[in-house]
Amino acid sequence: MSDELDLHDTRLLEDVVIHGVYLDLFKAKIDQRKEEIRVRACVGRDPRPAAFVKMVEKLTKWSGQQADALQTLKEMIEKSDSKVEAERTSAAASQKKKPKSYSSTKPPHHVKSSRKGKEARTSAH
């Protein structure tokens, strides 16, 4: 099997077999000591007409689940957008309520200006 699949890494080959078993492509047993796989049954390459009905049912169910997931994501995005917009509106409203501060033009009351400091700054430039 490893030659047919061109997989010479034993662990990778085991992963492929395990994945195939989980997908119900075949029923097999891995014997690690003997390094062999015993396949008991496998899915035919050409599905029977009855299998198409099951495939359509599964695909229809899957499609519905995807549509539901998409709708849920859209709702989550809308909620998030609404929340962001509400926060922006709230922030803008709180900015309008704040009185303008002119203290930046006057030095704080605890800072004393000295004549020497002004002269020093003037002469340094």
UniProtKB/TrEMBL annotation:
- PANTHER family tied to this protein: COP9 SIGNALOSOME COMPLEX SUBUNIT 7, COP9 SIGNALOSOME COMPLEX SUBUNIT 7/DENDRITIC CELL PROTEIN GA17
What GO CC terms are in its UniProt record? COP9 signalosome
Composition bias type Basic and acidic residues, residue spans: 79-88, 116-125
Q: Where is this region: Disordered?
A: 79-125
Does the entry feature the keyword Signal, yes or no? no
Coiled-coil zones: none
What is the protein's name according to its record?
PCI domain-containing protein
UniProtKB keywords: Signalosome
Does the keyword Ribosomal protein belong to this entry?
Answer: no
